[in-house]
Amino acid sequence: MFVTLVTADFAEFNAPSLKAFRLVMARLGDFLFAAETISKVIEGVSEGCNLVLTYDGEDFHIAPDFIVGQQLSDAAFTGQAYVVMPIYRHAAEAFSGVLSDMPPEPTIKPSQSVENTSGRKPIERRFHRVGESDYEIARKISSAEKPRRSGKKKAKRKK
Fold first, then answer.
1. Nearest CA-CA partner of 63 in 73, 83, 49
2. Which end of the chain is more exposed for a tag (fewer CB within 10 A), N or C?
3. Where are the domains of the chain?
């Protein structure tokens, strides 16, 4: 059943005909040439984000890889399928004249932590990638390891 469900979702992205494929490719070209898309790509790579192109069978989107992880997490409930393609390398090549100070690789990367939401209160845990696609969940993150929020410090209470 699992294989049937996954392959059925994946098959939806395969154009049923050459004509449908050409239409999708034309829409992709229109999306990539749009001023808003180009602006978003230049802004994202300038910030050091690893931008990813996603396609949900209807619409194209460009977002940093750490946002795509959230989209895929939401897909567990919505059933939404995505085709995902990293585009940082293409942006680096295409906009090298405009972005002379662009780093050769993304400098903003996803954090290696996840939230376990099975209890009453979410627990943040670190994970380590093992090989290409395996992982190991380490332990609960201590409050000393959590990044501090910027802003005003809490005032101490007087006794």
1. 49
2. C
3. 2-94, 111-147
Low-confidence ranges of the chain (pLDDT < 50): 1-2, 151-155, 157, 159
Taking the CA atoms of the chain, what radius of gyration do you get in angstroms?
20
CB 93 within 8 A of CB 68: no
Backbone angles phi, psi at 18, to 5 degrees: -60, -35
Compute the distance between CA of residue 127 and CA of residue 130 in angstroms, rounded to an integer: 9
Chain segment 101-131, per-residue pLDDT in tens: 778 889 998 888 888 888 889 888 888 889 9
How many whole angstroms separate alpha carbon 75 and alpha carbon 147?
28
How is residue 144 annotated by DSSP?
Answer: T
Residue 128 CB coordination number (10 Å): 10
How many CB atoms lie under 10 A from the CB of residue 87?
A: 17
Is residue 158 classed as helix, strand or coil in its secondary structure?
Answer: coil
pTM of the full predicted structure? 0.70
